TrEMBL record:
<comment type="similarity">
    <text>Belongs to the aldehyde dehydrogenase family.</text>
</comment>
<dbReference type="InterPro" id="IPR016161">
    <property type="entry name" value="Ald_DH/histidinol_DH"/>
</dbReference>
<dbReference type="InterPro" id="IPR016163">
    <property type="entry name" value="Ald_DH_C"/>
</dbReference>
<feature type="active site">
    <location>
        <position position="264"/>
    </location>
</feature>
<dbReference type="InterPro" id="IPR029510">
    <property type="entry name" value="Ald_DH_CS_GLU"/>
</dbReference>
<dbReference type="Pfam" id="PF00171">
    <property type="entry name" value="Aldedh"/>
</dbReference>
<feature type="domain" description="Aldehyde dehydrogenase">
    <location>
        <begin position="42"/>
        <end position="491"/>
    </location>
</feature>
<dbReference type="InterPro" id="IPR016162">
    <property type="entry name" value="Ald_DH_N"/>
</dbReference>
<keyword id="KW-0560">Oxidoreductase</keyword>
<dbReference type="InterPro" id="IPR015590">
    <property type="entry name" value="Aldehyde_DH_dom"/>
</dbReference>
<dbReference type="GO" id="GO:0009013">
    <property type="term" value="F:succinate-semialdehyde dehydrogenase [NAD(P)+] activity"/>
</dbReference>
<protein>
    <submittedName>
        <fullName>Succinate-semialdehyde dehydrogenase</fullName>
        <ecNumber>1.2.1.16</ecNumber>
    </submittedName>
</protein>
Amino acid sequence: MTTLDGRTRLATVETPDAVPWDGPRLAAQLAATGPSRQWRSAYDEDLATELPTSTPSDVAAAADRARTAQQEWAARPLDERRRVLLDFHDAVLDQRDRLADLLQYEGGKARLVAIEEVLHLALTARYYARTAREVLHHQRRSGIFPLLTRIDQHYLPRGLVGIIAPWNYPLSPTISDGLAALVAGNALLLKPDLQTPYVALAAVDLLRQAGMPAELWQVVHGAGERVGAELIGQVDYLCFTGSTATGRIVARQCADRLIGCSLELGGKNPLLVLDDADIEQTAAGAVRASFSNAGQLCVSAERIFVADRLQREFTDAFLAKTRAVRLGRSLDFEYEMGSLISADQLARVESHVADARAKGARVLTGGRRRPDLGPLFYEPTVLAGVTAEMACYAEETFGPVVSIYPVRDETEAVRRANDSAYGLNASVWTGDPVRGRRVAAQLRCGTVNVNEAYAATFGSIDAPMGGMKNSGLGRRQGPEGLLRFVQPQVVGTQSLLPIAPSHGLSPQTFASGLTVALRVLKSLGRA
Ligand code: NAD
């Protein structure tokens, strides 16, 4: 049997041998001996394998192995750990096409989207390799008594960091977040989504080839409610990316254990078309914002607010560009949009559109499956007349469906954009970037892109990224993305005099002396 990319498939039987890449070797790296679950390719519906899942003792044993490896890893000089990330960067670029194939096979995404994800991973590896020394460097802080009190602050790794990952971007959030934890001296215990284990295994495999100790990063496999909960029971910190509903569950589990967590959750992201926006550029940007990765992107736009003045012109241009999106599957750059990842995801998209239609919304374009292209294809869809009674008004659809709303002016656009339980990303289009930044400051979203859909902030690894309101806690990327994986430790060394009455001083005299010292320090302007 030949796959769509023209390669010979080893078999269509349900064993790891069936996958057209190094399947058996990767599968053997899972810390899993329990009952098998089926994995099925979103790209090629005939391609399926069985993979073992992790039992509670598999998860516990994997955690032990990772903790043991962490002792040696944390003791290595930071420069050695940075070197592993730099070598990984090169390996990712060398293996770019293989990783992109895997992303497409697992997720059904279009080629360019897959390549962008791979490049983003390499970019992140270089960023943390280059900046870790500056962010994690040992610092001297002011002591209570100048000269007498020396304060040293350094950062200790948390130990074992758990990652629970979603299926939509199995490299970019998942492995990228892990790189920051790794360079800081941590071990990792990762649970990829059931639908995307292979690409995660391939990336961890490349890290081993780049010099990471073999047992330092363990991968477990299985259903979230079971294996995810076991993982949380083992780790010292959790880095979770997924839906807001699951985020609440895992946050409660972390609270019970008194461990920290970062939560990268869902969104209902607004795109604002201000009355001075360039129509062509904005329409093209709105297509990227709404339909990249078939809308299965945490930062993609699902609500477009258009200034009345541009309503007709923008809608026409946007619909024309949406209808021109090339839909299909191939392992080259022929198509701009691939399929959805699963039947569940397709059902969710269909139910949102059916609900909106039944309650009076108009489908301006799209609104149907495309079984002629593959079982999981759905057309890019634009809705109008969406009201608060419809599920797609406030709930995340997480598919290629966007609604257009007319607004009188900028004030109404900002008010309606902020009228959401979420606050992940926003996109503002205007002929005046200063105006765009002024509007951005009024939006309650963790990232705002002016005259870009999402890539300006997403691709700028030096800038923290994350959500406000129900979109999450904590930040990935930037120094914040690294500092969440360490704990500051402060060492105070006192010399000559104790911080207590001594040398015959009475407590009263000591207290008065301290009071005078505070007044003097303030008048000298010292902190
Ligand atoms: P999900 O919450 O269903 O699953 C995410 C992960 O959590 C999976 O690995 C799953 O197995 C696991 N899980 C499920 N239930 C669990 C439980 N009870 N305990 C522990 N783990 C559990 O999310 P999804 O459908 O895979 O991903 C889509 C969602 O992720 C969307 O809402 C999207 O917006 C969000 N997302 C956010 C970001 C971001 O950076 N903010 C990035 C990507 C995706």
